[in-house]
C-alpha cells in the first residue's frame, strides 16, 4: 500500500485516514518506529503495553482547522532498576509532552501574537483558520523567555511615554547593532545608573541633554564617553530662535514690505477671501477659539508676573510646559500660522469670470455654461463659492425671510499690545514657521521664503541671529568641533537673550557637545525605536502593561 498524498505533513508517521468535516479536517496517524526509549533511563523497548489517542491541533489547511488523531503507544520499560514501569512514546519534534497544539502551530501563534497583539491577532487568526483567544496569544508572549543580550559597547538612551505628560520609561539601544537592549520602567537617574552598574562594559553613551540621563550616565558609567544627540542640538537651536522671534514679534511686524514684493501684495482674484463672508459659522468659531487662546495667554502672563514658575503654571492651568514657556517668552500674543493658499481648478478661468461679473452677468448657471465651453471640467460648486463671496459687495437687497447672523468680533482687552490687530498677525507667518526660514540652508528656501528673509534682515537683531544660527547649523552638519568654542563666545557677546541662554547651556555641557561633533554615533536609531514603541502601544490600545510591552519590544526585534 503506497503512502498517503498528505504524508509529507507528518514525517515519521503513517497516515491511515483523512476525514473532511464541515468545520475542520481530522487526520488519523500513527508512529512508524518499532521502538521507543524510556525518558527516565534511556533504555529502548519494543514491548507495547497499550495504546491511547492524542488529539492536538495543527496548522490549518485551506482555511479549515486541522485536528490530528495520533495513535500513541505505551511501552513497558525493560530496565528492572528503572522506577518507571511504563512510558508513552514521545514526538517532541511534532508536539510537546501534554500539549494540545503542535509545535509548529504554537510557533505560528507566537509570531502572530508578537506581530498583532491579543485582540487584533485573534481577529486575524479567525479569518485564516487559526482559532485562538486573545488571552492565549498574550500568554504565549509571556511564556517566551527574553533573550540574554550582551552589554553593548555603544549604548543609546532615550525616553518614551507610558502615559503622555505623566509617566515615562527608558529604552536602551545598541548603537552598533541597532537592536533594543532593555526597557526601564522610568527615566530617573537612579534607574539608569543601577542598570549601567549591573552591566559594565559600556564605553560610549548617546543621549539627549536631559539632566536625569546626565546624572544617571555619570553615576553608572563614569568612564564612558557621553555623546549628545545631534538632532536634538539642532532642534534646541530652532526652539531658541522661535522664542527670539516671538519676543521680537512687534518689531518684525512693523518692518516695511520690500518694494519688489509690493506689486504682489494684492492677492489674486481666485482667492476665496473668507473675511468678506461676515456671519459664517466658521468665522464665529475661529473668533471664539482665538479669544479663548488669548485668555489662556493672558492668564499665563499674569501668573508669571505673580512669581509662579513654568511647572506651577502648567499644573494650575492644565497646559503643557512647552506652551507655557512659549507664552512667557512672547511679549505679544503668538498667532497661529496661516496656511498657504492651495491652487484651485477655477484659477485659469478667474480672469474671464471677473470680466463677465463686471459686465453685469451674475447668473451662476450662465457663467458655468460659458466656462465649460472654454474647457472647465469641475462642478458648479467651485463657481458657487466664487460668486457667493462677491454677491454681498453688489449691494443688492436680499429678500426678507432670514435675518443675517450676527458676528461677535473679538476685541482684546484694554492695554493689549498693538499686534493684536488683525493686520498685524496676518502680515507675517507664525514664529514657528519663521524659525525654519532662519535655520534652513539658503539654497533650500523658496523664492517667497527668500523675500521674507530679506524683509527680516531689516532688523539688526535678526541679522545677528541669522548669522549665528547658520554658523551653528553648518558646524553640526559638517561636525567641526574646533568651531564650537568661538561660536559660543560669539553667541554670548550677541546680547540676544534666547541665544545667550542656549549658548550658556552648551558651554556648561561642552564635553558632551564636543563629543557629538567628534563621534560618528548619534541617537537617530534610538528615535526610530521610540516610534516603534509608540506603534506597539497604540496597537494594544494603551491597555498592555509594562511587562508585556517590554517582551514585545525585545523579543520581536
List keywords for this structure.
557 residues, Nucleotidyltransferase, domain 5, 23 helices, 45% helix, alpha+beta, 5-stranded mixed sheet
Please state the oligomeric state of the protein chains shown.
single chain
Low-confidence stretches: 261-279, 404-426
Q: Give Rg in angstroms.
A: 36 Å
| Ends distance | 48 Å
Averaged pLDDT = 84
How many DSSP-defined strands? 13
Structure description:
There is one protein chain. With 557 residues, this protein is an alpha+beta fold. Among the domains are: 7-143, no CATH class; 154-229 and 522-556, Nucleotidyltransferase, domain 5 (2-Layer Sandwich), CATH 3.30.420; 274-283 and 291-393, no CATH class. The protein has helices at residues 103-116, 118-127, 134-143, 189-198, 211-220, 230-247, 249-253, 259-262, 281-305, 310-317, 321-329, 350-358, 364-373, 380-388, 422-426, 431-439, 447-456, 460-478, 484-492, 497-508, 510-518, 524-539, 546-556, and strands at residues 13-20, 24-31, 36-37, 44-45, 48-54, 57-61, 64-76, 86-88, 154-163, 167-174, 180-184, 204-207, 225-228. Strands 1, 2, 5, 6, 7 and 8 form a six-stranded mixed β-sheet that branches. It has a five-stranded mixed β-sheet with strand order 11-10-9-12-13, sandwiched between helices. Strands 3-4 form a two-stranded antiparallel ribbon. The protein is flat, with a radius of gyration of 36 Å. It starts with 12 loop residues before the first strand and ends with a helix.
